[in-house]
Amino acid sequence: MADNMEEEQERPSTSPSSSYTLFLRIMSKRRTWVCIFILVYAVILTSSWNFLKSIISWYNLQSKASSTSSSSSSYFSSSGWPALYASVLLGAVFGVLSMVAALAVMVPATLVTWIAIVVLLAFFGKPRKVLVVEGRKITREIIGCVLKILLKEGNVVAAVCAVLGYFALFRRSSEAD
């Protein structure tokens, strides 16, 4: 009996540390997740804004360089290739941003849909094993559908932004000449 008491005292306690419980308490708050969401979007918008500014500055540099250089490179600027390159990059940036924004909205909506379907299946008396199998099938179907929609919408936004960007940049370079 005394040996058992000594063994229990020698074992380290399995209670979590205070820093871990503080971390769990902080992460369980809704405002923490809102702050993380806003922080991630701020980082994405800042980096994409800097990338957009670098694309525009590259385009302006190409336009200025081609207007001051020889006639062999004036074909490059007059044909609109810099505007085409810049507009494709602008379209890609806006397409990715739209997909990230749509993903942030789609994840909670998809989760609610998935939960509702699994709960309805449980109410109709499906056994647990069948619920697990059906839940996996439903998860695959929902994720596949969401990704198809996400890619389709992102590509449409990218194409529209690329076309609009091309006409805006090409018209601006034509007016400058």
UniProtKB/TrEMBL annotation:
Transmembrane regions listed in the UniProt entry: 31-52, 100-124, 145-169
Key words of the record: Membrane, Transmembrane, Transmembrane helix
Keyword flag Transmembrane helix: yes
Record PANTHER family: PYRROLINE-5-CARBOXYLATE REDUCTASE
Annotated protein name in UniProt: Pyrroline-5-carboxylate reductase
Annotated source species: Ficus carica
Lineage: Eukaryota, Viridiplantae, Streptophyta, Embryophyta, Tracheophyta
